[in-house]
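pinned: reference chain
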Amino acid sequence: MIGIVDYNMGNLRSVYNAFEKIGKKVDIVKDADRLKSYDKIILPGVGAFGDAMKSLDETGMKEAILEFADTKKPLLGICLGMQLLFDKSYEFKETKGLGLIPGVVVEFDKSKFKTRLKVPHMGWNEIFIQQKSPLLKDIDDGIYLYFVHSFHATCDDKYMVAKTRYGYGFPSVVQKENIFGFQPHPEKSHSNGLKILKNFVEL
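pinned: its C-alpha cells
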C-alpha cells in the first residue's frame, strides 16, 4: 500500500493519476495517524517551503513523516516534497525542513549563469546519473524530465543520485538510505517518469 501525503500543497491529484496509469492503487492520506499503516509514502508539493512546513506542523504530518522515516520503509519526496526533506530552506526566510537528508535549499544564483536564463527553471531538462539507485533502475543517463522550480537543493555528493545543469549543476535526484527525493515531476514526464514511479512501487 502506498500513501500520498495530503497537506494542502497541490499537485497530489496528478501524482495519484500517474499511479493509476501504471495500474497501482494508491491512497490520498489526510490523517497523520494513518501514515504508519502504509508500506511506502510519497510527499508531493507545489508552492512555498515555509507554507508547506507550517501545514505539515499543523496537520501533525511532520511528526508522522519523521516516525515513518525511522521505520526504514521507502519515502519519496517530489519537487517541493524533495526540498522539504533537507535541513532548511532560504526561500523568503530561513525555515527548518524535515532534516531527513543533510543539506540546504537555495535560490538559483543568477550571477553564476554564463548565459541569460529565466528563473523559475521550467520545462524539459536532462538528468545525469552520478551513482546507482533502485529508483533509476533501467533509466538511461541523460533522459529528459519535466521541471518547475526557482530553488534547488545543495548537499554532499554522497546523497546525489543524479544532477541537472541549469546555469550550473544541482542535485535533481537524491537518496539517503530509504529516503528518496526527486526535483523534477515524474508524474508530468511521460513514459520515463512513469517508469521511475514503477521503480518506486517495486522497492
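why pinned: Residues 2-201 form a domain with the Rossmann fold fold (CATH 3.40.50.880). The longest helix spans residues 190-201.
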